[in-house]
Write a structure and sequence with these properties.
The chain is mostly helical. It is 58% helix and 0% strand. It has 4 helices and no strands. The chain is elongated.
Length: 72
């Protein structure tokens, strides 16, 4: 059975994606993990990631992090 990603269930994927990005951002920027998570949740990338139609949820951690680095 294959599940379809919709705007209604996309929220279930986001913690996993943020969990990949936050430690990298924390290390790269020399900030706490909490600050890294807050930055990600306030980023333009997060808005794209949390919108099903952008298909950003489909990207892997390296591509997402590269997008995040461009923003900062």
């Amino acid at each position: 059975m294959s599940a379809k990603i919709t705007q209604d269930n996309l929220h279930m994927l986001l913690p996993l994606k943020i969990g990949w990005l936050a430690p990298w951002l924390s290390e790269d920027k020399g900030i706490s993990l909490t600050d890294a998570i807050n930055r990600i949740y306030r980023s333009k990338l997060y808005k794209k990631l949390s919108t099903e139609s952008t298909q950003y949820w489909h990207l892997g951690p390296v591509d997402l992090y590269n997008e995040l680095k461009k923003e900062f």
